[in-house]
Fold each of these.
Amino acid sequence: MKGRSSSEVDLHIHSTCSDGSFTPREIVELAKVKGLKVIAIADHDTVEGVAEAVAIGEEQGIEVVPAVELSIKNEPEKDFVELHLLGYFIDYQDEELNDTLNRVVQARIEQKIRQIKALQDDGLDVPVEEVFSLVRGVPGRPHIAEVVMRRNPGRFASKEDLFAEYLSVGGKAYTQRRFSLTLAEAIQMVVKAGGVPVLAHPGAYDKVKDIEAMIYRAQEIGLRGLEIAYTYNKNRPYYGLNPAALHTILARFEALADKLGLVKTGGSDFHGEGKDIELGEMGMSYAAFQELRLCLGLEAPG
Ligand SMILES: [Zn+2]
Ligand SMILES: [Zn+2]
């Protein structure tokens, strides 16, 4: 094992194909430097970076698990809660998967443009092209915020104020996506593409009234695992847990996974620069990954 906080396997990484700041190539090369053996680039609603990562992984001797992180609108709840589903070992060339992801991405683009237009209607300077130039994929609300803060100095005391007034759920410029998957649809899509559906960061859905019941229902549809190790301790909205709270949340979902016979995964949710999270942080040991592969009946490559 390398450092205290790093592991050999990191199954949750974002690249420039969604909202990360490193390209798939840079991530594989960084993984090599850090001594990781297995990584998964799990970009939001896209598999665009997978082929590049797999190819460079082969070159560098790092196993790259084809993956995606799907955003899901949680229907049964009255409050809008966005869930994330990880799909591992997927056939990233699967046509139906790619068609659906294209629809989701299109809806995300439209949603972002509507949010930017709403800000413009309120007299704020925020050019659409400037927001979209910040990423290779679809920008997120933090990218909109970055441009608003830069172009409208003095208008908001902080980014948090901007979010509260405009961009958070219920804010003046917040709009929902016109097309998104339900949890059941997302699970079925991953399974159909030959993949393994795993619920991402189950400890992050405080607004879901009965998370255990939701996970139980999801398992009946085909959910195979829970992301246990996760950087809940890092400073982000709703997280930033202290060590004791982190331990409690990890133990809770680990026990649930054991009880239900779900596999346990781990990953950093590394986004590159600016989030105080290291590649490999809160990942898995290689032995745990091998065990997971065995549980899933998958063979090691090569
Ligand atoms: Zn997520
Ligand atoms: Zn993520």
Amino acid sequence: MWNGKRPILFGGDYNPDQWDDATIDEDMKLFEQAGINLLVLPVFAWAKLEPEEGKYDFEWLDNILNKIWEHGIHVFLATPTSAQPSWLSKKYSDVLPVDIAGRRRTHGMRVFFCVNSINYRSRARAIAEALAERYRDFPGLAGWHVANEYGTYCYCENCRKKFITWLKARYGSIEELNSRWHTSFWGRQIYDFDDVTLPTELNDDYRFCPAVQLDYMRFVTDSTIECYLNEAQVLKAATPHLPVFTNISGFIKKLNQFEMTPHMDFVGWDNYPAPGDDAAFPAFKHEIMRAARDGAPFLVAEQSPNQQNWQPYNKIKRPGEIRRIAYQGLAHGADSSLFFQMRQSVAGQEKFHGAFIAHSGFQTRIFREGCALGQEFKKLGSSFTGGRIRARAAIVFDWENWWALELTSGPTQDMDYLKQVFRYYKAFYTENIPVDIIKTTTKLDNYDLVVMPLLYMMKPGFDEKIREFVKKGGTAAATYMSGRADENDRCVFGAYPGPLKDVFGVWVEETDALYPEETIEIIMTGKEGDCSERQHTGKFLCDLFHAQTAEVLAVYGKSFAGEKEQECFYTGMPALTVNKYGEGHAYYLGCEPDESFMRQWILKLCEETGVKRLFAFEGKLELTCRENENGQYVFVINHGNSKGRVWLNEEGESPVYYSLLQDKEVKGVFTISPGEVSVLFRGRD
Ligand SMILES: [Zn+2]
């Protein structure tokens, strides 16, 4: 293990079970040359490690691990349990999952097992025990990586029975279950727990009852946690001093990671931005992952050194792109830059997925860029690892709200919670105003401003938290589709936003869904709290709401279908309001505004609450600051095509920073070239 602090972890997935000795020897030299300090293996090697039930073959792995350690490279040893061997699928009929249409699936995919299968869990635990026993004292062992990208939904009879047990524990009685699921609608009364069916029926008109689906998603999350712990507990018991975690798929919706990750020693997630993605989008996902363990540093467990293979059009990474992606993760709180994969596979589903060592070898642009990155990381060492980000503004993101909003039939088919919350995040990001994504369980004491976009599901206690926050002087901002349902998706009677009506001083009477081509004007009334421009555009959904004690800051103007004006009976109704409540303020926004409104509104809220941008800047720059015991580390990434400038001066002083990558002191106005990155250090005074 590393003595003292871990450096930036650099390396990634290596699958040597595919390669001969000569190739592995060549890889070791290349890894050393590239400055790789960590490999993750053997993620998919269960079939090779246990060719028959209970008969293990570890010698080949011993040899590879020894070679790796001879080159001074650490490992996260992976339990290979995301791809079970064929004998396991064949011998035990409960291992393969049953899909939503009731079909038992065939063997041959990865992450393709029932997480509740007793036989799967028993054999997974056994191989985890065998690995722990054999490698617990291996000197290069830096941690344990359990399985890979959990996320299979199974609908087998065993899962149904366990779901019933889960429901009994959660709700106690059949009466409570019927009440929670509101089964009197459509006469779906459940007389006996054994009558519970899984949400498998697909229908063109309606999805299965959303309350049942919601609970099934919670249950699958809990089952997956059990499945993870089944192995993790064995590993932790063998090596209590080493971290244990699993990597989270970049497509993160189906398992509630806010529930899963507290069971891990850190969050590790797989970052695969699509070509052409707004640079703010991966930044937003990093923030969600940082939120999962309340701001603790996390790992980027995978990213691609070059193109992916599974997107519709797999663009190769442009020169310098991977460096910006790697630093963006570090800038937002990651302590690693790990990649899938080190050597490109010869065949199989991912043969065209990028790698450090590609089919074309190592005399390549990508390998050279990887080596350059490795040299920089060596230089940075463990300087900023462990560093945290401080923010006075927060955006609430709730996983179960994500599920519930998108399970709901109506008011629009275009509901996309992630995209919606992203629009609010982007307003902060573009202005380089530090903002935390927070959970509904996060304490609000450290914040001056809390934005809660589309918080449809109001969990017990959260309304009180917001009430107290505003009463004590905080500023809260809520939007359309807020405060509508409880945690079982039962809507509130007495108008939205339910228990927070008095805090926001409004009540919502109806919500109109706009066609994609429809827009509505948002006209500022010109009072305090105004945006600087008078007229803006809204779309998506329009809450028709009434200001009771709130002041109206904007109203709906004319309505348009494309360019053509159309009749609109709610022209003149409030679109944005503010309510004074206790010592604080509560804003309510009725429709999805355009980007310029969003930017001006968020800037206004920040100005009112004293929330500041990190530095004044010019250009398409991304700025963040991580702090640890050494001091502050300011990350500057230039995503633009022209020079950017950062004003490092503070009121009345001109602090000196040290540019760690360029090895020079900087103060005053810092200039950064297009596409470049910098890390500026300022020690504790
Ligand atoms: Zn199952």
